[in-house]
């Protein structure tokens, strides 16, 4: 029935007008555009589409087509995604080559490739198609026939046409996903740029011998037809609003094909969101399970796993003990952040490793051994003693051993097995201090120096000549990118206010704000992938000035995977800004107290991340640091949901021989240790107390203080946690959490650790190093004493 309806639509929808009838504002030979911050574009007659240069970062430009009348200027086609054009580059309409893009020195970067064809003019059409035509209006070249990742209404793809996803959300170079209407008539989606294996195909139309054309019609329908116009395979379903809406269908960078709409006259009363809205289920409906390559990484990269979001888009994450290989692209996989198990000796380091549980998770490939008729304890021991075993999957009495790299990973309700990931108990790789780094740098410099001294005079002379030639070319450019400036006192990179103003596009996208300033999203470098968070501090007076000095001196000397990295700062006149690494998943508060509850496994990882970061601040820094404001709002999550401690502006630095200090009350009510209110010297134990409250919130997935709680005993969560522990009913804390309820031993252990942390007497609270060991199971958790009831009165 759907095929019949779509066939009727195809007949009723008028065919595109002739090329000649659509011309408006034709561009003659010699017309050109220059890549700069001016309006470097050619518009369609209605002004809805534009062709020209889009700035993608400092001094880098993309030749593209975009929706001109919507706020985000969504790009639908690009020419030079793999090689961005420097500022001053030019695109010109020429008789020899057609459309030619050259850099400031005249070197060709891209060309439409027309030669000797009688080119007369070009036009940007209202359909979003950019065409090159002859004097007799014959179309010689058009963007619709050479799509990148997007197709538009009235666009038709012929046999042999390929659509490539881009590398990442803001990087328009070619990614690894693509779909193609093959010469055999079959429409297929591939997980690699080139088909290496039939398992690379993750969706197909099964229309071999009959498929002819992929059509996106004016009614918002995308479908595959036969040569006679019969609809063979609809790619979209349902009713799509078209009147008053822009439409686009795109192969997203994560491999799913989605149809979007956007209101042409969006405003607060339009009833539609200001951005693009999904109006059709993506293809495939579950990419996590659709991609199952014989050789390849799966939907996500090696050693990572795929989960499905509410929008049916994949989310790629790292398992315990692994970190992203590329922080700018979560789909590039993960690497171990610990030293692998040694295979030397008869019992290789089995006491140095543990197995972390991951429920409803599997890596179907990478199996090198399996055993049946076993129990889980046997499976655990078999993996621990096997130095080749990176993970084990246990399900229904079967134990599968997996080795690195793990591939095709996925987590979801469709999986029924349990994964046991092997990680090192004490992660020595995360405790590299600045002294270690300096030592490594000195060693590297000595090696480089030795090599240079041993080189011949001829080689050195050649290097000198090369350098002089390079400098001469650089001096010819009218605008050079500013060299990196390092402050000799702080050792940090310094930025000018203008650089950061440009990096944030005029402080356009706000990420959050606090008492001392506002944080904006920005991008550094020539590609729109190097995101940063720029904190603009308030005026240069009072506490704001002190916070600036504290953050630069404190954070600049820290280096740990669970601390947000300070990349540099600006101290120019009244302008003071801090540049941090960008954390794409926001705050723990939003993640923990949002509409959907994070998994118990993910909360465990976050707890361990925060504990390791605090342990580093307290004990492993050259100068010990007390954070003073540990709370969910100051814990940020990166692209792989690794938790990192942020906002050291309230930190109180201790000298190497200090253990306590005196200061005014700092931090946030509800997370403050009682000694803050008693005019007592504070120590790192105030952070331990705050961590205890945070741990309570992570266990129960709610705020510690909830005055609107239906049960009075549950208003202060920390008090209720002790009551449940004392009564032997800790499962009440997680009664609606099936995953946590099955892990009652760990829940009870975490509760006991939290009760130790919130002891009124700071001397009774354990150190963060000891807490980390207890969380990892390396140290047994003793029975906690009864805490005082001071919490209810604070």
Automatic annotation (TrEMBL):
- Chain ranges passing through the membrane: 445-470
Principal location listed in the UniProt entry: membrane
Which SUPFAM superfamilies does this one have? alpha-D-mannose-specific plant lectins, Protein kinase-like (PK-like)
Task: Give Gene Ontology CC terms.
Answer: membrane
Q: What is its EC number?
A: 2.7.11.1
Mind listing the UniProt keywords for this protein, alphabetically?
A: ATP-binding, Disulfide bond, EGF-like domain, Glycoprotein, Kinase, Lectin, Membrane, Nucleotide-binding, Receptor, Serine/threonine-protein kinase, Signal, Transferase, Transmembrane, Transmembrane helix
Binding residues for ATP, per the UniProt record? Answer: 535
Q: Which InterPro entries match?
A: Bulb-type_lectin_dom (IPR001480), Bulb-type_lectin_dom_sf (IPR036426), G-type_lectin_kinases/EP1-like (IPR051343), Kinase-like_dom_sf (IPR011009), Prot_kinase_dom (IPR000719), Protein_kinase_ATP_BS (IPR017441), Ser/Thr_kinase_AS (IPR008271), SRK-like_kinase (IPR024171)
Query: Enzyme class, one word?
Result: transferase
The reactions it catalyses are:
L-threonyl-[protein] + ATP = O-phospho-L-threonyl-[protein] + ADP + H(+); L-seryl-[protein] + ATP = O-phospho-L-seryl-[protein] + ADP + H(+)
Q: Name one GO molecular function term.
A: ATP binding
Does the keyword Glycoprotein belong to this entry? yes
Q: Which family does it belong to?
A: Belongs to the protein kinase superfamily. Ser/Thr protein kinase family.
**Protein name per the record:** Receptor-like serine/threonine-protein kinase
């Amino acid at each position: 029935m759907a095929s019949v309806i779509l066939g009727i639509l195809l007949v009723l929808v008028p065919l595109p007008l002739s090329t000649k009838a659509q011309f408006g504002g034709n561009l003659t030979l010699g017309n050109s555009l220059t890549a700069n911050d001016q309006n470097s574009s050619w518009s369609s007659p209605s002004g809805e589409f534009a062709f020209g240069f889009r700035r993608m970062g400092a001094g880098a430009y993309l030749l593209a087509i975009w929706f001109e009348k919507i706020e985000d200027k969504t790009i639908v086609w690009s020419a030079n995604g793999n090689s961005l054009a420097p500022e001053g580059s030019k695109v010109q309409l020429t008789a020899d080559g057609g459309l030619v893009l050259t850099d400031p020195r005249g070197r060709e970067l891209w060309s439409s490739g027309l030669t000797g064809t009688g080119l007369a003019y070009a036009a940007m059409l209202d359909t979003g198609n950019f065409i090159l035509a002859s004097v007799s209006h014959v179309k010689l070249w058009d963007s619709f026939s050479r799509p990148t990742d997007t197709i538009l209404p009235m666009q038709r793809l012929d046999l042999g046409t390929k659509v490539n996803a881009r590398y990442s959300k803001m990087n328009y170079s070619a990614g690894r996903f693509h779909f193609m209407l093959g010469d055999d008539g079959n429409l297929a989606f591939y997980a690699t740029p080139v088909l290496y294996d039939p398992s690379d195909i993750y969706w197909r139309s099964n229309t071999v011998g009959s498929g002819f054309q992929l059509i996106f019609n004016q009614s918002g329908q995308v479908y595959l037809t036969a040569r006679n116009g019969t609809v063979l395979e609809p790619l979209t379903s349902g009713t799509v609003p078209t009147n008053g809406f822009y439409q686009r269908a795109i192969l997203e960078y994560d491999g799913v094909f989605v149809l979007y709409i956007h209101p042409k006259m969006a405003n607060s009363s339009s009833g539609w969101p200001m951005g693009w809205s999904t109006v059709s289920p993506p293809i495939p409906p579950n990419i996590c399970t659709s991609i199952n390559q014989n050789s390849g990484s799966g939907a996500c990269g090696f050693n990572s796993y795929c989960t499905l979001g509410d929008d049916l888009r994949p989310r790629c994450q790292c398992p315990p003990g692994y970190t992203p290989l590329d922080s700018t692209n979560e789909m590039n996989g993960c690497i171990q952040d610990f030293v692998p198990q040694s295979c030397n000796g008869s019992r290789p380091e089995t006491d140095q490793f543990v197995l972390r549980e991951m429920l409803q998770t599997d890596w179907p490939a990478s199996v090198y051994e399996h055993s049946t008729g076993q129990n889980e304890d046997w499976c655990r021991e078999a993996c621990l003693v096997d130095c080749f075993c990176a993970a084990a999957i246990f399900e229904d009495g079967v134990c599968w051993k997996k080795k690195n790299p793990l591939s095709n990973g996925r987590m979801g309700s469709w999986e029924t097995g349990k994964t046991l990931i092997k990680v090192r108990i004490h992660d020595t790789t995360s405790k590299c201090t600045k002294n270690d780094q300096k030592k490594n740098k000195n060693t590297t410099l000595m090696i480089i120096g030795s090599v240079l001294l041993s080189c011949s005079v001829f080689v050195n002379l050649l290097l000198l000549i090369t350098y002089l030639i390079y400098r001469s070319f650089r001096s010819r450019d009218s605008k050079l990118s500013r060299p990196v400036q390092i402050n000799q006192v702080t050792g940090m990179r310094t930025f000018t206010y203008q650089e950061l103003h440009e990096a944030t596009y005029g402080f356009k996208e706000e990420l959050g704000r606090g008492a001392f300033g506002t944080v904006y999203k920005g991008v550094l470098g020539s590609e729109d992938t190097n995101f940063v968070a720029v904190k603009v501090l308030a005026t240069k007076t009072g506490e704001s000035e002190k916070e600036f000095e504290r953050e630069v001196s404190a954070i600049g000397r820290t280096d740990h995977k669970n601390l947000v990295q300070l990349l540099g700062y600006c101290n120019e006149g009244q302008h003071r800004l801090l540049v941090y690494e960008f954390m794409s998943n926001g705050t723990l508060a939003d993640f923990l107290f949002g509409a959907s509850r994070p998994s118990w496994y993910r909360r465990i990882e976050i707890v361990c991340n925060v504990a390791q970061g605090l342990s580093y601040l307290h004990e492993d820094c050259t100068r010990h640091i007390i954070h003073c404001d540990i709370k969910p709002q100051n814990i940020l999550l990166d692209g792989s949901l690794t938790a990192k401690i942020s906002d050291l502006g309230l930190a109180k630095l201790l000298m190497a021989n200090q253990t306590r200090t005196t200061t005014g009350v700092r931090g946030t009510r509800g997370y403050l240790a009682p000694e803050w209110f008693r005019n007592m010297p504070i120590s790192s134990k105030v952070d331990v107390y705050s961590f205890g409250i945070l741990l309570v919130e992570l266990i129960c997935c709610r705020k510690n203080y909830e005055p609107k709680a239906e049960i009075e005993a549950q208003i202060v969560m920390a008090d209720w946690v002790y009551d449940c522990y004392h009564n032997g009913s800790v499962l009440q804390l997680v009664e609606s959490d099936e995953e946590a309820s099955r892990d009652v031993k760990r829940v009870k252990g975490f509760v006991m650790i939290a009760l130790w942390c919130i002891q009124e007497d700071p001397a009774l609270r354990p150190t963060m190093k000891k807490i980390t060991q207890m969380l990892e199971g390396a140290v047994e958790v003793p029975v906690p004493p009864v805490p005082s009831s001071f919490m209810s009165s604070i």
